C-alpha cells in the first residue's frame, strides 16, 4: 500500500503511520518528540479525518474500473493522546483487544502484518465495519482519529475472501475483486489517522511537521488472468465397425494476438451415442478454435469440422461435433502422443488415453 497526503506526495510502500509507542519498542531508543508547544499544532482528536483509497496504480485503472472495487473500513483502535507530547497511541476496540499484545511487544513490519492479519480474521468473521462499500477514488469523510483496517473487495461478490501462501509457506487472509479478464487479490492493510509527512522514506507520527487529516492511499493488488473451461461434445450417430472409433481434436486458444493454450485431445466410441471432454485452465476472453483433425477409419464428420468459442468466467463454453458411418469397413483407431523434455531423461513419449466421459 502506498500512502499519500491529499495533495499527492508519496509515502513509502508497506508502512503505516505508526505512533510513538510503536517506534520506541521497534527501535529500542528514545526519539526526539515535539512538545505540545512546538511548531506543529497538537493533534486535534475531535477533528474528523478523511481517507481516499485508490484500488491500484494508473496502469491498472481501466481494468480495475470493470472490477467494481469497493472498500470496507473497520476501526481497530481509537487514537489516544500521550500526555505532554504531540503524538498518540492506540486504545484497541473490544473486538480487537487480543491484538494489543502484538502491538506492545514490537512494531516492525512483520508485527504490523500480524496485526493486519489478526484484525482481518476478526473483521471478516462477523466484525462490524465503520464504513461499508465505500467508493474508491472518493474521500471517505467523518472518520475518527485512530487505526483502521482497509478491506478492498469486488462489489456484489458474495465470496470475496481467500488465502494466499507467503514465501515462508504461511497462509494469509486476502480478498478479491474480479474484472471480466483478471482476478485482483488484496492483502488487508492498516491506516492510521491522522498522519504526518514522510521523512527519509519513513512515517513517524512522533516527528515534527503538521498533522494530516486527509489522506490518500494506493493499494497494491496482485493481478492474474482468470481461467475458464471448454467442453467438446461429440455425437456418433451410428457405429458399424469392430474397432474403437477414435476422433482427434486440435485445440488452440488466442488472447490479444498470442496463443495462450494449445492441446490435442481424443474421444473413442465402441457404440453409437454421445461423449464429451472438459478442458480447463484456458484464459478468460480467449478465442478458442477446435478442429477435428482425425475422424476414424470408417467415419466422417457431418457437422462443421472446425468450431470456435469464447471463454467466459464462471461458464463452460461448448463446441459440438457430429460424425456418422461412411459405408467403409476400414477398421483402425488412433492414439494421441504427448512429448515432454526434461534435463535428466531427455525427450519422453507418453500415449494419452481417451479423455472423454
What do you see in this structure?
The chain has helices at 20-27, 61-67, 100-105, 109-124; strands at 2-5, 49-54, 69-81, 88-92, 131-135, 140-143, 146-154, 161-165, 171-178, 182-186, 189-193, 214-218, 222-225, 227-236, 245-255, 258-269, 273-283, 287-294, 299-301, 306-310, 316-325, 336-342, 346-352. It is mostly beta strands. Strands 3, 4, 5, 7 and 11 form a five-stranded antiparallel β-sheet that branches. The protein has a four-stranded mixed β-sheet with strand order 1-12-2-6, with no helix packed on it. Strand 3 (69-81) and strand 4 (88-92) form a beta hairpin. The longest helix is centred in the first third of the chain and has 16 residues, at 109-124. It is elongated, with a radius of gyration of 30 Å. The two termini are 47 Å apart. The model is unreliable at 5-40 and 338-342 (pLDDT under 50).
